[in-house]
Amino acid sequence: MPEDYRSALTAQNLVPLWPSLRSVLPPGKPAQRTKPVCWPYQALRPLLLQAGELTPIEKAERRVLVLANPGHGLQKMQASSTIYLGMQLLLPGEWAPAHRHTPNAVRMIVEGEGAYTTVEGERCPMSRGDLILTPTGLWHEHGHDGDKPVVWLDVLDLPLVYYMETSYVTEGKAQAVTAEAADRAYQRGGVVPAPAFVRAEQPFPMLRYPWLDVRAALQALATNQPDIEAVQVAYVNPETGADSQKILGFSALMLRPGERLDLPARSCAMVLHLIEGASDVKLEGHQFSLDEADTCCIPGYTPVTLANRSAEQSAFVFIADDAPLQKKLGLYEVRS
Ligand code: GTQ
Question: Roughly how many angstroms between the first and final C-alpha of the chain, as a whole number?
């Protein structure tokens, strides 16, 4: 194109589409910045504990190492186009003050006992494998009464909410605890509170999904349906059966001893975090060996094979993806 024509376009804030058409609409498969990446816990843990020595919680507010995907550029703090992952450390006696923000968060507890997150006055104890929701707009703060470091994985839809120019926080003061998660009415699927047969609207009725319950559900599924393709359960809203949050979806998967599981290519990228056991993750050109507490990211449109490395023990994997968002937008695909 003639230089003066280009300059005339630029002067009017105009851009020709045709030289770039194929880069925004590539044939058959989207261009992807998200790369397959693994964050082994044994490499990350000492650096996180060092952050505990270097940075007082009062300065940090949240003491977090972000699991950043180099495909997006580390400064972008993205694991995928929509998913943010952070490994957060809270030391005994520390307190991460109350705030609320527009992005939705969940915590998957990685190690330690005695910490808790208070969400809208509900105190949720943290134990290995528990999933705790802090959905959009709800007050939350973290405290720790135990005597060893506590670490958890934060999963947020921050990259998407930031991209939409809707990400912001409101600071608050300490919440009064009004309920213990264990006392909550939502304990089991199938029965929900219905005072006088009027069901109150509850967008986020269940905030804590204890690992012991989820693990037991997986084992019962494996026992009762031995032919089931994948031993997998979804974290859902017990009132509606819908995904527990609107943008990101969460599930837990059990690999039976020696099991190999082929997952079809899906349009959504996926984060895997190994709760228990040992599993290989194979995709085109990459293989990760996940040990306990390791986390990896798999780009969308990519078939994956998971293989339990043990012939005796089951492996348990926590999965996060943006399938709920893609389904709402009509973009979700499974390619077999
Ligand atoms: O614990 O509230 O990893 O607000 C990033 C932002 C954790 C939190 C993160 C947050 C939090």
Answer: 43
Q: What percent of the chain has pLDDT over 70?
A: 98
> How is 158-176 classified by DSSP, letter by letter?
HHHHHHTT---EEE--PPP
Residue 197 has a pLDDT of 67
Query: What pLDDT sits at residue 196?
Result: 67
Residues 102, 137: contact at Cβ < 8 Å?
yes
pLDDT at 199 over 90: no
Residues 84 and 66 sit within 8 Å (Cβ to Cβ): yes
3-state SS of 90-105?
Answer: ECCCCEEEEEEECCCE
pLDDT of residue 38: 98
What does pLDDT average to over the chain?
95
Which of 77, 142, 156, 248 is the pocket-test mutation for ligand 1 (most atoms within 8 Å of CB)? 156
Ligand 1, from 154, 167, 271: best to mutate by most atoms within 8 Å of Cβ? Answer: 154
- Report how far residue 49's alpha carbon sits from residue 312's, in angstroms, rounded to the nearest whole number: 33
Domains of the chain and any CATH numbers:
34-335 (2.60.120.10)
The pLDDT assigned to 181 comes to 79
Nearest CA to ligand 1 atom 8: 62
Closest ligand 1 atom, residue 169 Cα: 4
Testing ligand 1's pocket by substitution, the residue of 44, 48, 64 carrying the most ligand atoms inside 8 A of its CB is 64
Pocket of ligand 1 (CB under 6 A): 62, 64, 86, 88, 101, 105, 140, 154, 156
Nearest CA to ligand 1 atom 1: 62
- Quote the CA–CA distance of 289 and 279 in Å, as a whole number: 6
Helix (H, G, I), strand (E, B) or coil at 7: helix
**Exposure string for 44-74, b = 16+ CB within 10 A, e = fewer:** bbeebeebbeeeebeebeebbbbbbbebbee
CA–centroid distance, 150 to ligand 1, in Å, is 15
